[in-house]
Amino acid sequence: MKNILILALIAVYFWGCSSSLDTVNLGAEERLKYAMELYNDEDYQEVINEFQAIILQYPGNAIVDDAQYYLAMTRFKRDEFILAAYEFSKLIKNYPASEFLAESQFMLANCYYSLSPNFQLEQQYTRKGIEEFQAFIDFFPTNEKVAEAETKISELNAKLAHKEYNTAVIYEKLEYYSAALKYYDNVLDIYHDSQYAPLASYDKIKLLIYRDRETEAIEEANKFLQKYPDSNRYGEVENIKSNLENELSASR
Prior knowledge:
CATH topology of the domain at 156-252: Serine Threonine Protein Phosphatase 5, Tetratricopeptide repeat
Structural class: mainly alpha
CATH class of the domain at 156-252: Mainly Alpha
Radius of gyration: 29 Å
Helix content: over 70%
CATH architecture of the domain at 156-252: Alpha Horseshoe
Largest sheet: none
Number of strands: 0
Shape: elongated
């Protein structure tokens, strides 16, 4: 009985090997069909080998960009975002006439979007995601996924704005006031349409008052009132501005 079991296991092993080896004798279309069956069955480890083999074996064939695209998608589905970005980039560079070009550009951006970390960490992938989504919008302005790309750009920009604002707050707490004002200005200048812009403007007003720079504080208050009429601090800023103007008038 033991020998029968061993023979059965050996047979299964060699059947599995011969199954994968048999694909070498398939034509290009048949081999891609087999690879797509593996892909649809989510047999991702095996299908990576198949797609790579197709790319190497049929370099001039019309199916190669299919294999390249689905190789990249397989990497993405396995959360291997850096490898996926590399494979999508290869398709964009090597197959500019591919039907998968637009989707590859979108997915390349999505790779960096997925790699974008918490706002407190280094944001190189966040910036790269914005760059690649913008490239997608620029090159494929009528694509149905443009709206999604714009939404994700806004989300990534908000993360960068949050980092700048948080840096300003930290510098202010450390009493590095010039640096704090610089970072508040960065939020206001670069990320003026983010949710952190009114926060930065408000904190800048308070800091300018603390530093006895009342005239500048009034100027910033005027900007706040013009730009953020829906802010829940609108009334407070109005009062701050009025009080500062009264104090300045009284001191003259």
